[in-house]
Design goal:
The protein is mainly α. The protein has four helices and no strands. It has helices spanning about 5-45, 55-75, 80-95, 100-125. Helix 1 (about 5-45) crosses helix 3 (about 80-95) and helix 3 (about 80-95) runs antiparallel to helix 4.
Length: about 130
Amino acid sequence: MPKRKSTRNNKNTLKKKVNKFKFGFKQIIIEVLTGLLTTFVLAWLTNQGYLPDTVTRVINIILIIMNILLIKSMLSWGVFYTIGWLIGSVIFFEIGLLGTWDIILYIVLPVAVLIVRLFIAVKRSVAA
């Protein structure tokens, strides 16, 4: 007779998934707010003449590298973390804090990663 999972284990599993979802949601909030703050501060410092254009370009290159690293890290995100991230991204898009390029980075790529994971899971279950 197969063993039934206890209700306690199911509650712990659900709690872990909810925590991962919350963490992903918090991370998108931190990511967007940090990006906005960086953009505003950088623009203000440049407009006031406190930063030369070359320093601004170097900072922009660093920010691009950070986005590339973010994209690379998406491959290791869990499903519930990614779903929390996506919901937060959609909310920020709806209130106008994310633009078109942000949508590609924050919504399209994580959805693509989820789809690839789904195909891999289906392929593994069929092969098993």
